[in-house]
Structures are given as structure tokens and as C-alpha cells.
Amino acid sequence: MTLQTTLYMCVAGLINALALLVYAPLLDGIGRKIKARIQRRKGPSVMQTIYDLRKLYGIRAIVDGLAGNYARYAPALSMALAVMAALMIPSFLPSSTYCDLIIAAYLLIAVTVAQTYASLSMSIPYSVIGGCREASIMMASELCFAGAIASIAAAYGTLYVWRASPIIRLESLKPSMIIAAGVLSIVAYVESMNLPFEISEAEPELAGGTMIGYGGRSLALVMHSAMIRKALFISFVLDLLFPWRALGAGLPGIALRIIVFTVLLTGAYVVMSMLNAVYGRYTPGQALRTLKRVGIASIAAVILASIGY
Amino acid sequence: MRCDEFISRYDLENAVCLDERLVLVKAENTTEVSEKLLSLSPRYSTCVGIDYRPINRSYLVHHVLALDKYGLYLVLEARAHDPDPVVESITNLFPAANWHEREVMDMLGIKFIGHPEPYRLILPDDWPEKVYPLRKDYPYDRKPVELAEILERPTPRNYTVSIRRGSSVSEAEIPLGPYHPALHEPEYYELVIEGERIVEARYRGFFVHRGMEKLAESRLTVNQVAFLAERICGICGYTHATAYCQAVEEAADIEVPARAEYIRGILLEIERLHSHLLWFGVAFHLLGFDTGFMATWRLREKIMDLAELLTGNRKTYGLNLVGGVRRDIDESKAHAVLEALDFIEEKFKKLVRLVMGMHEIIARTKNIGILTREDAKKLGAVGPHARASGLDIDVRRDCPYAAYKYVDVSVPVMDGCDVLSRILVRFEEIIESVRLIRVFLREMPKGGLMAEYDDIPGLRIGIGVTEAPRGEDIHYVVTGRENKIYRWRPRAPSYMNLATVPHMLVGEKLANAPIIIASIDPCFSCTDHVVVIDRSSRKKIPLEKALRET
Amino acid sequence: MEIAQLITYFLIAPVPILLIPVLLLWRKRVLYIGSSLLACISSMIILVLGVFGILVSKPIVYVFPWFNIQMSTHPYWFYFPVILGIDKISSYFLIILGIVSLTSSIYMHGYYASLKRKGEVTRLVLSYPLLILFMYLVIIVQSLFWFLVFWEVMGFTTQLLIASSMKRGGVVSAMKYYLLTKGPAELMIAGGIVSIIISSGDASYATVAHVLKSLVGHNLLATIVAPGLFLAGLMAKIGLIPLHSWVPEAYGESPTMASSLLSGAASKIGVYMLFRLFMYFLPPVFVWGIVLSVFGTATLIYGTLNALRQYDSKRLLAYHSMGQLGYVVLAIGASIYLASYQPCNALLSTVAAAAALYHAFNHSLFKTLLFMSAGAAEYALNERSLDLLGGLGRMMPLTSLVALIASFSISGLPPFNGFVSKWMIYSSTMPCSGLLPVCGFAAMFISSVTSASFMKYYTSVFGRPAFRSPGEVREPLSMVTAMMILACLCVLFGVAPFIPLMMIGHSLRGTWLHQPFPQGLVPVINGVALNPSIIIAAVVFPLSGLIYDVAIRDRTRTVPGWFCGAKKIVARTMPQPRHYFDEYESVFSEIYVIGDTIHSGLIKTGHFVKSILQRKSFVFEAPLFMALLASLLILILLIIGLLQGVLPG
Q1: N or C: which end of chain C has fewer CB within 10 A?
Q2: Mutation site, A35, A206, A290, interface B, largest B CB count within 10 A
Q3: Domain span holding position B514
């Protein structure tokens, strides 16, 4: 690892993080617009989420007075963790060669964990209910996620993202990797707060979610870090699924990568929001049962990968 | 069955025929008579307390029981004397009488001996004791306490219907309401939860009680009350207006011309359509399916347009007067209605097919919110809610009124007893409503719109019953002298259905609570019974001031 | 280091501790401060000894001139001198023991204030030093026979410490589980050791290791039977399935001093011996790799999933203790598996072994810290049920900060220490083929369950508003100091893992691992890489601090919670922690059912055995029963051993 590559990685990571800071809310706005169009209404403008964040960042932070001290600090922590994840996980630019599956997974998980600790500390019962649901869904989707990661590691003998990607290779097609790709997509869908799994924030199901105890700047930080995390999850899955090395190296390769990545990321959001418009919402029990079935599939993927398929 | 036939067949003592379908039974010993009446398996409908002291120095309590099989209503009269009026409670025999008797206790101060839960129902917590608003000596515009004092006192625990099923060391009582994003009107459910399971549910309502009954007695003429009745509810106002007009027409023996009856029928069905479609939208929203919500309400817009075409208003049609209707429906309007109905029916059937194919919606409504047939009967549930639990009751068929006297109404009944059944029952009702409107338009006779009548005689009792979108809506009227009303008691269907909600909630998962509450199609404005808001200053102003200024 | 100096240290180490009971003669204040101080001194000596021991290149052995036992049985005769010494493996565990007992001793000073009765103080003062002494002796002994003796006495002193402040009912139930699991286990370990001694002809570690290496592979006794019996005994001590029933009772019901010391240090003694048995005495045997991996995985799944159900703070921590030790055993199993099955990666085998040691150390740190925080909560509110605790975040800010650090560490969040050791475990199990990826997958899944469980724990005790108003709450300085030391170590080991990894690297040289651990770096598969943990810490802490400063601190408006317009007492509306994960439990009930059937199966077996004996009109008196079983077993093994000597091979 020379100094040059280290420097390159830092700069690339920084560019990724800054780009995602801006692009993630924009993607959220695009999603809202598409959902509105499917429902045959005009919908808010594509920049609406950015305007919302801007407004919230301008208002003084508000927090539930009876919650513990940690609840005040949590938005800062989860934002810092989200930015750290954005620095590490390759998105627009291929930033780190040492980003491995475990670090990426744990950083992504850490953002929600840090925030859920806070939501369970509030005095508002709906926040606690939302936090419990969030924790349960996290446990169930981690079952699937761990299975996918273990099977990828077992199939390709490495934990590095840049070596394992793409996990579906036409020259050596492995059934375990097909299952793993499916499981990863489902996990990314679930963790991105899409219907039918948008459970912890759902008022009609009597949760206040994890954000109900905040207002103003704190709320902006929580929302923003959640959006960045969502974009990063999708980026992580795209990193694994798409054959990035085929795009070539050098400057044209990097430019091509940026374009292709942006298109894919936006496309993923478009698809997710179309699915959002079509589905209703699950109760927590139903979501857990669905994830259990996906979990069984991921266990199958691990077993298959470990015996060579 | 006719009233006199009925009395002779069942050999009722002290029974008098007030009208073809209204029997009055005076009872010295209410419990004894009620026990005898139990053999007829009546359905408890409402209870009215009347301050008759200016007339005969006593209070009257009229329990209204519905005998659906015979198409009759039976009024059981009990008399109580001034001071300290006391009557026997019949809640032990008719559990549905629980709230009604408490309301009479609150508003008139008549004590019901033997009532299992003699707590306050309607009046706010800070209302002083021994001040009874519906007594004739209480002026309608008096406020007993200052607002500041109201905020100081703590909330006492006077809840309705508490059903307990095991509890643990540290109870978690989650407040659902009075203001919650999942609820559309103020109501208060206190849910005791263990994790995701509800172990106990308590309900408290009547946050928007507006004192309409007192207002009708004091200040308004007979026809003005019709317009006030329309404003009881924002969704089913016309039903209330019709029921009130029918009550007065029955009391005064006014015969409404046939054409007016058909027009009333058409508009009642249009109201049913828009109410059910609104309900579907809300239900989809609560199930997380916002696309369905938007689609349903877009369809509903067509019906609102129809209402505007026919009456000039999207809601609050203002069409009824005692004796008939105010506007006519001509050929071109009828034609427009028929075209719109074709469109609505087709689109609606498509939507139903789509929704029935969504397994997550079915999974969230099947076997959720069970109300057994016995419970429904015991608590006096009405409307689609009761029909989904296997009770075959519908006022349009049992005790026909308006244009329903001339047609056969098919009544959908399911025995799933769950939320899905309630959805299916309302699907069927929409289809049936469309059919009925077509029939009415086709068969509408020519004629006048308004009956001719002299002064309305005083102190006559009349009951007007309609099948509102939510169930049986009954208005009880005692006419007064000089074009006023002596007593008016509107009882909305949600009054009966809300009592069943705690039964349905216990044992269910918390995430299902909003859809269960919504599945009875609660209309709290109806239940609670005009708040006028000054649009510029957004302050509430009393109705009298508004009426004076307009 | 000169031998003579080391010897004096050996001798001195126990002395301060042995002086503690003498202090009972004085007043309370002298007793509290004095015993704490003496224990600290001993602990520091142990720690220093450990550090020096790691740096020493060859094991230092000293044969004690007294207490030798000679047995002559024609034609063999056995000579069991007391051999004490330090080698690389034991010195690492001496460091662990030193740190844990040091912080416990500091904590003890504040703990005394919570003891109500003089009798309790006396019992604590008498049993605590004994336990530390015998733990120390077990680690430094270099003769299997004396290991057995000290091990049994250590077990006895453990029970003594557990019972020291329990009520009668608690003592009885703890003893019941002890007899069910550890009783037979002690016999088995005795049997295993006896057979090993017989096979190798001598009890000293060096000889045993030498002989066993040649015997393994051809001799069934040496390959399977003896290690199996030994393992059974160790399994009970560590708390692996299926001999785990005593752990929740013992750790859960015992006083804070006992549970923190036990989970922090005593369980590590079991790990130490396990490590030594499989990484020093025996060469890598494929069967044991599989057995250890499977048992480790089963324990981590069972322990953590059952911890989700708990609503008593100490029992929850006890189940987690069991689970985390499952991780350690899994890592040891993975190391053996990788070394014996494929030379897939000698590097990965080393990494797995390093992960085991590292996780053991990290576990001591954060688990002791967690038990201390639970003890502080119990001290403040006199309550252990999670449903009824709450509000301590504001009252005891330092304690809640360290509890938060410990919760994040055990959940494996970067950049704390739990993350690094778990990462090493995943790196060594997942990229392989065969059994290990499944184990790695289970480990990663269970780490998310741990995080959820600690969300429940931390927020119920510290995070959420008070359930009952606590009144006057004190945070004794000594308790806080002890906890802060551990918390700082947690953070340090997470941010700069090369410090402990250097120690581990040295210590692994004492095993049969060929590949040396890459110096000071968190290993990656190919080539050299920067340690991401430092980067993560370097970004996350300052960034979050900056955001907090700029956006939140001093600029926050606090608003009371909104109860939808109803007037509610906050405590009545808080959902109970015992039901947080009910839904999850009911959906994933299949996994729970498996664990529950195993557990109830064991209980039923115990009852069945008892009923058989009763039917045969044996009086089920525990000591008699044990003695009979013991003599039976030893007789059998003696016969086997004798035969073994007679038969060729």
C-alpha cells in the first residue's frame, strides 16, 4: 500500500461521501415523485426532500425531555457512522480496496443500531414500540444478510468486495450465488424501508418509529443518515452484483463507472418506489415470517457454497 | 306485522299503539316487563330520558326496542318522580343498554338502580355534580365552569367497557388518542399491552359532544332542526335529516308524496355509496396501501359530483324538510346519474378484483378483529358490522321507509366475523346501492315534492329509523307546541358499534388495532353529537352567534 | 529475567491476598480499604508476571521442593512434584486474570457499602482471596496432577463465593445445578487426567505434550477417550451445551462481586485449559476441530437466543456470557479444523487461534464491566428486574457511559474491541469450505441478536426514563474507577488492536501453530493493510463530537413527550422490556424449541437417573453417590491404563 494509493483512497472516499450526502435525498425525492405518478397525482417536486432537510437543519434541535442523555447524542453518532460507511463502501468511485464484506455490513448495521438505542430510550411509548419492531426486523434480516455474506465468502474464498464481485459469473455459475444474489436484493429492499416492510415508522400500525422523539436539527440528522444508509445498502449490493472490472481502468473507466453507477442506483430507487406503490404493509409478525423463509433460503446458500456449489 | 295484531297476539299489558309500527308499553316494574319481552328476542335500540315535569311533574324514560322480525318498534316506558328520580336498570337483561342509561343519568340525573357501571359518559370531567343539562330548567347557553379550571384537574378514570384478560406486574397503558395520526377523529383508547399483544382495552369517547339535543329543544323550529340534524355528521348527514323528518312525519301523521320518497331514497343510496368508498380509502390507508386509497377516493369524486348535480352540494345536501324534499330530479339529471353509475360500477369491480388478489391485504384482515355472533347480538351491533358477524338485520328490509317500501332489498350477510367479512359486506352493499339507484330512477312516479299539512300537534311521539351506511340510525322525537320540538334524541349507529371495539381488540396484535377500530366505520361526530369555526380567526364560536350573524 | 527473581514473585503473589482474612480483626474501614488494597497489589503482581512471561522465550519451570506425592504401584511408580511455571500460554491468561482481579478488587471497596450484614462481609473477605489464589495456582501449575487438585479446590471456592451472600433457597438451587452438571464433569475430568497421566507416564506438562504428540493418531485412548473426558469437564466449567445449566443460576443469582469475577476470570480458566489441551498437548486432530466448532456454535446460538427472553438483568448477562464463550470455543475449533483438514490456510488457522484468545480477553473486559454496571444498578435501585429499572442514565452518568461502551463492544459495533475479535473470527471461518462457513454465518447472525438484546438491556436500565423514582443515588468512586479502567481498555483494544495482538502473537508461539501471527496487524488475506478500526475510530468519534457540538449541544430544546393529548403518568405507559421481543420469539419458535427440548431432556435425564436409583433403593445421597461413581470410573481407567501398558502399541 503505497502513499499514493492511500491518498487516492481517501480522496475517492471523500468524494463518495459528499456526493451521497446530496444525492441520497435527491433519490428519495425521485422515489416520492414516481410513487405519486403511479397513484395518478402530481406529487411533491423531486427536490422536496432536500427542501425538507434544509428547513429542518435550520430549526433548533428538539429532543424528548425525559429521554436519557444518549438520545441527544445519538443523531450525531448515527450521522458520523453513516458518513464513515460512505467513506468506506465503494459507490460512485471505487474507493477502498480493503473494504470487506464484514466492515461494510457492520457499519451499515451500526447506523440503525445507534439510532435504535435512542428510540428505545424515549418516554414516548410509540417510539419504544417502533424501536422494538426495528430491532426485531433487524435481527431477522441479519439472518439473511449473514447467510448471503457467508455464502459469498465461502464460494470465493475471500471477504474482500473487490475480489468477490461480481458474485454471479457466467463462466462458473454457482447455484448458491444465485440464491445469495436474491437474498441480498431482498435484504436491501427490506432494510431500505420499503413497503411491505416499512414497519417501524408506520403510524397506521401504531408505531411512532425511531424518529418521533426528535425535531429540528436532530430530526434532520436522523433522517439524513437513514437516507445515506439506504443509498449505501443499495450501493453495496450493486458493488457485489455488477461486473465493475469489465468497465476498464484508468480515467475513462472511472468516468464510465460514475455514469453506470448513477444510472443503476437511480434505477434501483425507481424500481423500489414502483414496488412501494403496489404493496400494502405487513404487520411485524408477517414481516418476520417472510424473513424467516428468506433466511432458510440463505442457510441453504451457505451450505451449498461450503460444499462447493 | 301491524301494531294491533301484535298486541293481541302477544297479549301485552298496558300496551298502546302509537302508530302502525310503534307500540308503547307502560311499565311499573321495568325489570319484570323486560323479562317478559326477552322471549320476543328484541334488539335494544336506544333509550331516551325526557323531562316531562312541565307537563305532568315526572320524568319519563323510554327504552326503544327493535323487533326486526316483526318490523316493529316497541317503546318501554318507565316513569320517575321529582325530586330524586329513580328507575330500575335493565342493563343486566339488555347489555346494550349500558351506555344509553349512563347517558340519561348524566344528562337528566335519573338514577338507574342496578346498573353495573354507573359512571359518567358524556359530560366532561370537570362538569359539576348535580347539574343536568337536559333538564328543562337548565338554559342552553349556560357554561358552568371557566376554562382555566378545566385544565387543572387531573383526568379521572371513568371509562366505558373495560374488558380484562390477565395482566402482569408492570402494565404498559398506551394511549391511542385522543389525537393520533391513525385516528381520524378524537377518541380515546387506552390499550394495555404486553409486547405486541393487547391484553385490555378501554374506550372513552364523546369528545365532540356538541349539545345538539338541547339546542334543538330550545331555539330551533321544527324545520330548522332538520338542517341541524344534517350537520350531525360529515359523511352521513342526509340520513340523519331523513330520519328526523320521518320521525316528525310519523308523529304528526304527515304523508310524504311518493316522488319525494323516491328522491330521498336515491340520495340515501348515493350517500351510502360515497360513505362506503370513503371507508375503503381509509381502510386501505390503514393497511399501508396508499395507492388503493387514492384510487378509491378518485372514484368517490364522481359520486360527490353526482351529489352536487342533484342537490347543489357535495355533502350536507339540505334537501329535506318535514313533509318532503326541496328539489326535483329531472330527466337530464337522471341520465347523468345513470351514466356515472355505469362507470363507477365497472371501475369499482376492477378495484375489488385487484385488492382480493393482494395476499398481504387478505392476510391482514382475515381472522382479525373477531366479534362473535353472540357478542354482536348481546351488544346490539348494527349495520354492516353486525351483518359481517352473521346477524341478518337491515332496516331497509325489516322496517321499510321512504322508497324502500316499494322495492326488495337484498341484504348481504357473512359469518366470518372478521375484518375481511366487513370488507366483503361493504363491497356487496355498494353493488346493491348501484342497483337500487337504477331501480329508483326508473320507477320514480310523477307527483308533488311536499306534503301539505297544518300545524304539527304537540306532545306526540314519533320514531324515524333509517339504515345509515353504518347501520340503524334512529331518531326519537316528541313534538312540542308552537312549531318547536319538545325532545329530540338522535342515536347514531356507531353508538352501538363502538361498544364492541374493546371486545375485538383484546388478544389482537397492536399493529392491527387501527384497522380493527376502523372496520366498524366509526363516525364519532355522529356518536357524540355543530361546532362552528370562524375561518378567519380559527376560533370556535357558538352556533347562536353564527346563526345571528348569517 | 532471572529465575530466582521470578520465583520470589511466584511466592509473593499470593501473600498479600493471604493476609486479607487477618484484617477481619480490625475495624470496618481498615478492613475495606486494606482488603481492597492487598487484593490490588496481588493482582498487579499477577499482571506484571503475565507481561514478563510473554516476553520470555522459553517456559520457566520450577519444581517445588515440598508437597510431593509418591505412589508406588508395582511395577510402576508415580512421582508428582509440584511444578510451577510460566510459559507463553499461561502468561496471557495471567494478564487476563490480573486485569480482572485488579478491577474487581477496586470495585470491591465500593461494594462493601452495599453489604448489609457483617456475616456477608466476613464470607466475602474469606472466599474472595481464596478464589483468586486458586485461580492463580491453576494457571501457574505445570503438572497435571496438581492441576487437578487445584482445579477441584477452585471449583469448591467458586461455589463458596457464589453462596457467600445468597439466601438459602438460592444456595440450594445453585448446588442442585452444580451437581447435575459440574459434579459428573469433575469426575470426567479426573478420569481424563488420570488416563493421560497413565499414558504418558508423568504428570508434568512438558512430558505430557511430548508423549501425546507421538501417541495421537494410533492410540484410541490418547486421541479420543482421554481428551473427550477432559473436554467434558471443561465444558461444564466454561458452560458449553449441554452442560450449561448451572451458568444462569450461578451468575444470575450470585452477588455482583462473584458474578463479575466468575464470568471475567473463572470461565477463562476453563478456556485456558481448553486452549492448552488442544493447542499444546494435542496436535491438531480433525475430530476435535469439528466437535469444538459444533459445540461452540450450538452454545453461542442457544445462549444468546435465550438471553433474548430474559428479563432479569443478571440472568440476561449470564446467558450472554455463555454465548460469548461459545464464540471462543468456536474459534479454537476452527483453528484446529483448519490446521488438520486442509492446509487451506495455515494463516487462517493462526488467525482463528488469535481470535479465540482475543475474544476471551475482550469478553473478560466487557462482561466484567457489564456485571459491574448491573451491580451498580442493583445497588442504586435495589432491583434486578428489567421491567422495574430505568432512569439511571441521568442519575449515574458515568456508569451509564461505561455500560453503553460495554454494550456497543459486546454487540460488535465498530470501532470497539468486540468488533475486531468478531471480525477475526469471521475472517477465519467464512472464506473456507466445509463446516466452517455455516459456523461463521451463525456467529454473524447471533451478533445481531446480541445487539438487539443489549439494546434492551442498556435502555431498560439506563436509557429510558425512570420507572420508579430512585431518590438518592450514589455512584461510589471506587466502583466508577474500576469500571472506567475496563471501559478505557475496551476502547483502547478496539482502536489500537495491535497492542493486544502483539501479546497474542507472542503467546501463540507456545502452541503447535506453524505460521506466526503477522506482527501487530489485523490480518487480511493478502498482503498488508491498514487497520480499519483506527480509521473508523479516527473518523467517527471526532465527527460525531463535532456534529454534536455544532448542532445539538446547548442548542437543544427539550419538550415533554406527547401522549396524544391524554394525561398519562410516564411510568404507566412504558412498554415492558420483558415483552420487547415476544413477537420475534413466537415467529422463530422453532429454534427455541430445539434448545428447550435439549434443556428439558437433560433435566429429565437427571430425574430419570435419580428415580432409577431410588427404585433400586439406593439412597440418593449426593456425596455417597459421587464417591461411588468416582471410584468406579477411576477403577475402570486404571484398568485400561494398565492394560494399555501391557498391550503393545
Answers
A1: C
A2: A206
A3: 212-533
